[in-house]
Amino acid sequence: MSAELLINVTPSETRVALIENGSLQEVHIERQAKRGIVGNIYLGKVIRVLPGMQAAFVDINLDKAAFLHASDINSKLILKEETDQVPDIRSLVHEGQHIMVQVVKDPLGSKGARLTTDITIASRYLVLMPNSQHAGISLRIENPNERDRLKDIVTPYCDEQQGFIVRTAGEGADELDLQHDAEFLRRVWHKVLARKQRKQTNLPLYQDLSLSFRVLRDFVGINLERIRIDSNLTFQELTVFTEEFVPELTPLLEYYPGELPIFDLFSVEREIQRALHRKIELKSGGYLIIDQTEAMTTIDINTGAFVGHRNLADTIFSTNIEATQVIARQLRLRNLGGIIIVDFIDMHNDDHKRRVLHSLDMAMSKDKVKYSLHGFSALGLVEMTRQRTRESLEHVLCGECPLCTGRGHLKTVETVCFEVLREIVRVNRAHDADKFTVYASTAVSNSLVNDEYHNLAEVEVFIGKLIKVQAEPMYNQEQFDVVMM
């Protein structure tokens, strides 16, 4: 399988596309304005100790001093003794002291960042814990055999200077992937210590990687052919980064100066737009309907215009098989997670069901995100889950529709017209008016004076008053006002 990364960089946004066999499989997007400082490590200076609050203010070269509470200080490192109680803040830090801290909460309003001295650095599968010696496993990994397997792999990486925790995403990871992560984290930590020795206070000792760097870290071990970047500055920065931390990727980096925008290669822009649509066409003439809701994602398969086989059963089976490949790709591309319900076209042949389920499982096996797949339910639905790793593509690129407020549909013109007529009658009963003016959208106004003219006239006769209709082009289809004159 051939694979490559396309990295598109602008001052305000970075986008990364994973291409496999000439087809877009994943899109990652990061906007500069939404990047925080949580996870950044600083060599800060204590500027004030507050015994009454059991806290200290620390200067980490931001606009506001950061806040460090006594409970967030690893007293065992400072006092060199075992204790389960929180010592007095004055025994832990003093004014003018330089201390290595990590941000756990971004500045908010008038409040500065919240800090801790319990440093952790995360990678794709592991979390490095300096000054800890044990190997831990995420509690969300419940299978005892898997926990034992992971602990056996990670324990040799731990020593007196550092320990590791296997993240939930590490479930099922092979030994080579875990080894890559451990080696990467060790190199990062050595760089942090070197910067600390130089007393680097004007810049972070470590900051969470931006998207272009992070994807290179996370794609270590994946068989990439090349990595094309359309920013020369980013290309040079990534070259320095890979030479230090992931040298096996350096030969794959390639600056792309082409006149054609990099995301027009492999039709990436077009595929991103298609991934925002509910309806996905199948090559055979069938189609999928994908609906993402708060609770779950539902996928409905339809034969559409596909009549390519001699009997209906074979037509349905072929459409369902084709749909399994498209479903697996769309879940990755849209980054849909949580509960997913797939409504395949009904099949009465048990062998067909088994083969469709196997085809979906094989297609999903290419996905590096953890998933679980269940068989057909009594209602003929396939239930599955996919781990949530980041916001879905729709949530990153789209917001709630101001017209339908998230319903996904607008009331028809006919429905709004009837609402207007009912509102006129209601207002007439509650208030004494000589006549009424209706302000509504152009479509509703036109319908009231044309298609619904007889109904409007009947209301005029019923209330015995004149009704005038005024079009308001700025009104949306559901918006109207009934004004007493």
UniProtKB/TrEMBL annotation:
Keywords: Cytoplasm, Endonuclease, Hydrolase, Magnesium, Metal-binding, Nuclease, RNA-binding, rRNA processing, rRNA-binding, tRNA processing, tRNA-binding
Location (main, coarse): cytoplasm
Coiled-coil annotated residue ranges, if any: none
Compartmental location: Cytoplasm
Essential cofactor(s): Mg(2+)
GO MF entries: endonuclease activity; hydrolase activity; metal ion binding; RNA nuclease activity; rRNA binding; tRNA binding
GO cellular component: cytoplasm
Domain S1 motif stretches: 39-118
InterPro entries: NA-bd_OB-fold (IPR012340), RNA-bd_AU-1/RNase_E/G (IPR019307), RNase_E/G (IPR004659), RNase_E_G_thioredoxin-like (IPR048583), S1_domain (IPR003029)
Gene Ontology biological process terms in this record: rRNA processing; tRNA processing
UniProt cross-references to NCBIfam families, sorted A to Z: PRK11712.1, RNaseEG
Family stated for the protein in its record: Belongs to the RNase E/G family. RNase G subfamily.
Name the UniProt record assigns to this protein: Ribonuclease G
Lineage: Bacteria, Pseudomonadati, Pseudomonadota, Gammaproteobacteria, Alteromonadales
Gene responsible for this protein: cafA
